[in-house]
Known about the structure:
Shape: globular
Strand content: under 5%
Distance between the termini: 30 Å
Helix content: 40-55%
Amino acid sequence: MSSADDPPDPRLLALGLRIRTLREARQLSLEELAHLSDMSFRGLIYIEHGRRNAGVLTLLKIAEGLRVSPKDLFDGEAHECQNEGGSA
């Protein structure tokens, strides 16, 4: 079980940074994006800081608030998928 003192998962940090980058590129404040995404201000802060593992519906709301495709939340990140068990 993780605690508030544990470091955030690097994947959540990368996602949060991507959301923040998109938000700032659109000159939106945290408050504005929270309102446009129909979510709490604090929840958005936790996501941007990699402290919350956002669900699919939350990510869809954020994408709508940013007026981007949901895939744009992940573009720009390095993805490495390896099949460790042999064949797929």
